[in-house]
Write a structure and sequence with these properties.
Layout (H helix, E strand, L loop, with lengths): L5 E8 L2 E8 L6 E3 L2 E2 H4 L3 H7 L1 H6 L6 E7 L3 H19 L4 H6 L30
Parallel strand pairs: 3-5
Antiparallel strand pairs: 1-2, 2-5, 3-4
């Protein structure tokens, strides 16, 4: 019988960072900052988004996942968590890569909030034009 292995991966989205530790031979326990997934991501759509890699590969319940999420908001952390889990699953089994890649779960979303420019009310907004 094979022994338990641990795989580490990092997922990022906006300003959120999720560090993932995936343990084989688990019972399906997922903890994020000491809480379960439904308690941490209180909205159902975020829970589904976070667990999408596991559902897609039908491996939910086979691994124990421990995660540490920092920065940003819960939506960015859910995306960061999903990316980290997908990367850890590929580290565990490279055969998972084509299915995860087809669904876009291995692509880091590069969009960031644009900085506010000096002399403007917001990042791109101009002041109202006045002819006279």
């Amino acid at each position: 019988m094979a022994e338990t292995q641990r795989f580490h991966a990092i997922g990022r989205r906006k300003t959120s960072v999720a560090k993932i530790w995936l343990t084989t031979k688990g019972k399906g326990h997922i903890t994020i900052n000491g809480k379960g997934v439904p308690q941490y991501f209180s909205r159902q759509d975020l829970v589904l988004k976070a667990e999408k890699p596991l559902d897609l590969l039908e491996v939910k319940g086979q691994f124990d996942i421990k995660a540490q999420c920092k920065g940003g908001g819960v939506a960015g952390q859910a995306d960061a968590f999903a990316l980290g889990v997908a990367r850890a699953l590929v580290a565990y089994n490279p055969d998972f890569k084509p299915r995860l890649k087809d669904k876009g779960l291995l692509t880091r979303d590069p969009r960031q909030v644009e900085r506010k420019k000096y002399g403007r009310p917001k990042a791109r907004k101009r002041f109202q034009f006045s002819k006279r």
